[in-house]
Design goal:
There is one protein chain. The radius of gyration is 26 Å and the shape is elongated. It is built from 11 helices and 4 strands; from the N terminus they run H-H-H-H-H-H-H-H-H-E-E-E-H-E-H. A hairpin with a 2-residue loop joins strand 2 and strand 3. Helix 1 packs antiparallel against helix 2, helix 3 runs antiparallel to helix 9 and helix 6 packs antiparallel against helix 8. It has about 300 residues and is α+β, with helices and mostly antiparallel strands. A 4-stranded antiparallel sheet has the order 1-4-2-3. It folds into 2 domains: about 240 residues, no CATH class; about 45 residues, no CATH class.
Length: about 300
Amino acid sequence: MRLHRTALLVWAAVVAGLSGWLVWLTLVTAPTERAAIDCTGEDFCDSTVPGLGFSTPVGWIGMLVAYAFLAAAAFAGGALIGREVESGTARLAWTQSVTPTRWLAAKLAVPALVIAGGATVLVLVFRWSWDSDPHLMFEEWSGAAPFLARGPATVAYALCALAVGTLTALLLRRALPALGVSPAVMGLLNLALTRLRPSLWPQVHRTSAAEVVPPEHAWVLDSGALVHGRPRTGVPYWNCGGAPAAARRCLDDLGVTGYYASYHPQSHYWPLHLVETAVVLAVAALATAAAFTVVRRRTRRHQTRQHRTR
């Protein structure tokens, strides 16, 4: 583990740096931004966009927290496992007193603990910072980065990245290809789950004779007019203004009989988040099991070949 001490120390420094920055933004910057909002319209106000000094850096930190798993995948695929498999160091260890399974478990134990611990700290600090001044944030809870960075899905993605990077390195047996393939695989997994995210929990569907107004901070997935009782998007019903009678005739000409909206209220955050976390942990478990299976099979093949040559 001495070989990877530098990488783990860098990760610890990143966690400490981002956590400290969030604390500063929350305790020092946020009060200034709140004061700027309170004095909007007064002659002494000098903030053109109140809240921007807080929401922008917190948003960038949220992206770093949410997608740190890409770096974990590259680390596992390139340095942690890939380099040792490619150089033959791993096989040398297997021929000695250390079994392949024990070698792999020892390789993954400390990095998994450090990565998961650091990710947990970042999630807790980021969530505290976000919840302390949500009205200063321009991005909603359904945004890609804050959705991940405020809960355990961040930790799940980090552990999954470690497992996927390990499996990729064992399959490719080359550090550089594994360094590139591992983050790509994790990126595809995240992209797929982001696309599927609205379907991970039942949506709220509402129809009404009047235009549907979703709750505040709802994640609106679809909305529009009902044309002869069926949902239709792109119907320009908003052009039907003027006197009530004229507006009604306009809507009748368009065939509008009502309105609909499909959305996730803010209360759906945790169900959506926890379902995605469970899916990612399942992928992590499968990748880990596959990695140990690959190690055992490769070792048996090598031992069989050695026995035949003798």
